[in-house]
Amino acid sequence: MDIKKKFLTSFAVLLLLIGAVGFVMVRQVRRLGDSIDVILRENYRSVIYCQQMDDALERLDSGILREFGGWGDRSEAYFDEYIEALAGAWRSEQANVTVPGEQALVDVAAELVPDYIACVEKIIDPAVPEAERRKLYREKAFPLFTRLRELSRQVLALNQKNMSEANDRARLGAEQLHARVFMILAVSLLFAVVLTLFLKNWIEKPIHRLIQLTAGISNGDFDIVLDAKSNDEIGRLSRAFNSMAAALREARRSSRLKLERSERTNRDVFRELPTPIAVADSGSGTVEIATQSAERYFGLSVGTRIDSLGIEWLDRIFQRVVQTGAPCVWQENGGVIQYFIENREYFFQPTAVPVPADAPPDRVSGVAIILKDVTLAHEQQELKKSVISTVSHQFKTPLTSLRMSIYLLLEEKIGPLNPEQLDLVVSMRDDSERLTGIINDLLDLNRISSRTHLKFEPRRPEELLRGAESRFRAACLDRDIRLEVRCDSALPAIPVAVNRIGYVFDNLIGNAIRFTPPGGTITLEAEPDGDAGIRFAVRDTGSGMSEEVRSHLFEQFYRAPGQDPAGGVGLGLSIVREIVTAMGGTITVESAEGRGSSFFFTLPAERERGEARNSVKWL
């Protein structure tokens, strides 16, 4: 027989045995259910009814005795309740007669219950003389009470006896079911043991052999051949296995050739990329693949260890990625390193990313180091600064002469002015002052970007805030704006650029005054920022700003929609950010339309001594 017939025959016998067990269990369980139903559905109800009748009789009799004893605290509703309970219990019992002999007792009780109820109603009637009521209780009511209680207990005893007999029958049926099921299960177990022994020779041994050979294939041994002499499913499977092994041998040979060709192509293409890129093993730090520019300019040749090159910034970003599993961008010196290659200045932006991306630190297998060439962008930025500086200086001299001429005209030292001429000269003075402010902002922006002319001295935060408050107290009083200072006088001094920090407060407070309506409040705050330094805040209750405005707020020459045309060219906050950054701090803003604005900037507690290690290298 083939495997299918073997299994079908074996399981047919098992199904017959299981069916026999099921048939016996269903039949016996049905009988047990009938017995239990009798106990629960019929006899149990009769027991409940008898108990209800006994309780009603006891309540009525005790109520009558309390009436005769002078404790007449039972109301008419009390007797009506238990009279109805007595009558209802016996009516229910009359409809639930199930035990032989129970009907006769119920019939007798049915005749006595109305008489007893009539006696009770007469005894509790206050219109009947007490002597007559007492006589009625002794001669008729109490005997009826005794007789009815006896009848109830007889009915109760009959039902309890029947419940006990039904319980015995159920127990006997359960024992018989247990014995029959145990016998059938023993036969099934014996058959299963015999079947297992046969199946082991039919199926298990050939499959075990097939598993062993499959494990060999998983280890790369494709030269295995199975014995395929039998004609059953195992034999056909063995022949299919041999065909699969042959196909795998051919596929492995073809894949190996394609992989070698692909790796060689990728390596050659990767090496010709113009951007310096290298991929290093995360464990050993050894370079595994690199472009020619990375090898030539940075020494990142294949087989070289990152830590052996002596390039501090390179080792730092590599270690950061290995430790955190997140991409790392070089942040110092504006995020740019300076290299001189073949007597020419180059600027690169180093970035390190984990391989694979977004993997946890323990799953990072490699680190890709990308050195983006930003020389052209850096040169354009420097050219822009140079042009702005040159133009600003060239404008400043004639503009100064023009301002002096305007002031001479206003002082009327060369002759009086009529009202129309005076208005024109005043307008010329305002425009020249505005133009002077723009030129000064451009010059300041260039100076701060180069981080020169910054004079650092220690200052206490309270001193800085109080100085800013004194400069703007009059302006706030004129506009009916409350100016508050919140600062702990015990905060330690921090190094600040004394020649530039005033500009930061003046610009932020000036903007707050401009956008805060009369009756509003401007708050200046300073508080510790952990171990990092001091966190300053300038808050206002003004009009606030939208998310779109916040996203461009610190950009050069950005002016919010609807702003006063005479308010500047959008350099103030750019200069503030440059000053804060030059002092080693950061600046952020929180704002919502109609809810005011809050500017926060953090300054470090200690200034770094000198710049970071020189990132300039000559090749």
Q: Can you characterise this structure?
A:
This protein is α+β, with helices and mostly antiparallel strands. Strand 4 and strand 5 form a beta hairpin. Helix 3 packs across helix 4 and helix 8 runs antiparallel to helix 9.
Count all strands and give the number: 14
Mean pLDDT: 77
Q: Helix amount, in percent?
A: 55-70%
Shape: flat
Strand content: 5-15%
Largest sheet entry: 7 strands, mixed
Task: Kindly name the structural category.
Answer: alpha+beta
* Helix run count: 13
Q: What is the CA-based Rg, rounded?
A: 52 Å
Uncertain regions spanning at least 5 consecutive residues: 609-619
Order of helices and strands: HHHHHEEHHEEEEHHEHEEHEEHHEEE
Q: Please report the distance between the alpha carbons of the first and last residues.
A: 83 Å
Provide the descriptors you would attach to this structure in a database record:
seven-stranded mixed beta sheet; five-stranded mixed beta sheet; single chain; flat; 619 residues; alpha+beta
Helices, strands, pairings?
Elements lengths: L2 H66 L7 H19 L7 H22 L6 H89 L14 H39 L5 E5 L5 E4 L1 H7 L13 H13 L3 E2 L7 E5 L2 E12 L10 E8 L1 H37 L7 H31 L6 E4 L1 H18 L3 E6 L6 E4 L3 H15 L5 E8 L4 E8 L6 H5 L20 H11 L3 E6 L5 E8 L12 E2 L1
Parallel strand pairs: 4-14, 8-10
Antiparallel strand pairs: 1-2, 1-6, 3-5, 4-5, 5-6, 7-9, 10-11, 11-13, 12-13
Helix pairs in contact: 1-2, 1-4, 2-3, 3-4, 8-9, 9-13, 10-11, 11-13
